[in-house]
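User: I'm putting together a teaching handout on how multi-component assemblies are represented. Below are the sequence lines for each component of a complex, exactly as they appear in our records. Could you produce the 3D structure of the whole assembly as C-alpha cells, so the students can see both representations side by side? Please keep the chain order the same as the input.
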Amino acid sequence: MKKIRIAMVGVLAAGALYTVGPSTATAAPTQVPLGAAQAQSKGNSAARTSGAPNTDLPLRLLAKQHGLGIGTAVDMAALAADTAYRERAAQEFSAVTAENVMKWSELEPTRGQYNWGPADELVRFAQRNGQKVHGHTLLWHSQLPAWLTDGVADGSIDSAELREIVRNHITTVVKHFRGKVRAWDVVNEAFTDGDAPVLRDTIFRQHLGPDYIAQALRWAHAADPKAKLFLNDYAIDNINPKSTAYYELAKQLRRQRVPLHGQGFQGHLDLQYPLPIDAPQNLARFDKLGLETAFTEVDVRFFLPGDTYKEAGQVGSFNTLLSACLLTPRCVMFTVWGFTDKYSWVPGFFDGQGSATPLDENFQPKAAYRGLQQVLAVASDPNNRRGF
Ligand code: G3I
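Assistant: Of course. Below is the structure of the complete assembly, with chains in the same order as your input.
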C-alpha cells in the first residue's frame, strides 16, 4: 500500500504526523482515504503560499490530538444502501451511536425474540473502522415494543413482572454487547421539562418506583462492569432547572455508590432559542463530580430557507458545544445526530425546519462542518488525555 506521509497543519501539535492510505472503508484509525490526502496536499500548497493552516482533514483526525471521540448517529438503512454515506461515516468519525437499532422496540419487537442483526452489523462496521460504539438506549419511555406497553396498560404485566422484564432486558442486551460497547445511555430522558422538573411518570417510574434509575444502572453494571454508564437527556446543555436536576441526581447516586459514570447532553439546538453559552460551566459541575460528559446528539435546526445569518448561527451553535466539550477535562465524546441532511430526523419531526447537520444532502461540507474542523484544529488543549 503506497503510503504518503504528510506533516500536520502548523497549528496542530508540532511533529504530529499522519499516515494516509488509499480510500477504503477499512482505513485504520490513523489513516484517511486518499481523497483527504489530496485535500491535504492541496491544502498544504495553499498553506505554504498563504501561511494559513490547512484544517481540511477528517474530524476524527483533528479530534485525535485531543483524545476526543467524534461521533455520529448511524442510520442502518442508509449504511447498507448508500456507499457515500458508509464511506464518510468511516472516514470522519471515531465513534458511532445506533440511531434506532439498539432501542427496545427494534431489539425485541416480539417478547423474548431478539433482533440482533442490525445492531451487530453496526458493531462490525465500527470494529472494521477503529470506532467505539455508544449504546443507545436501554430504558426510554419512547420506542418501546407494543407487547410491553400494551401488557402494562391492560394489567396483564404487573409491577413485579415488569421489574423482572426490565432486569432481563438490560441484562440480556448489555451482556450481548459486552466488550463491544464503550458506554451505554442506560436511561434516556428521565426528567420532565420546565422550571420544576420531576421524574417523568413513565411505566418504569410507576411500577419500579423512583429508584428505578439506580436499579437500572446496577443491573447494567452487573452485566458489563467495564462499560461506562450514562444518563442522557435534551435541553440540559446550559445551567437550568433540568440540568440541575441531573446534577443533584448525579450527586445522590454517587453518594449511594451507584455505578453512574457519565452524563450525556443531547445538544439538539434550534436557532429560535437562546444559545447555551454557559455550557462550559454546566459541564464543569459534572466533571467536578468525577463524571465523564459527552454531547451525544448534536444538531442545529432552523426554519428553512437558510440564509447567511442562520448559517452563522449554526456555526456558532456547533462551535459553542464543541468548545464546551474541549474545555471540560472529562468530556470524552462529541457526537452529531446524523452527519448529513440527507438522512436527518429533523424534517420529519419539525415542520418547516431542517438543514441541521454539518454536511448537506450531497455530503458537501457546510460552514458548520468547516467550523468544527477549525475548532478542533486550533484548540490548544491541556486536557488531551481523554484517551478516547
Ligand atoms: O422501524 C419502523 C418501521 O418498521 C416502520 O415501517 C416505520 C413507519 O412508521 O417506522 C419505523 O420506526 C421509526 C424509527 O424512527 C426507525 O426508523 C419511527 O416511526 C420513528 O418515529 C423513529 O424516529 C426516531 C425518533 O428518535 C423516535 O422518537 C428517529 O429516527 C431518531 O433520530 C430519534 O432519535 C431520538 C433519540 O433516540 C433520543 N433523543 C431524541 C432523538 C430525536 O427524537
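A couple of points students might notice: The chain is about 40% helix and 15% strand. The chain has one domain: 2-21+60-378.
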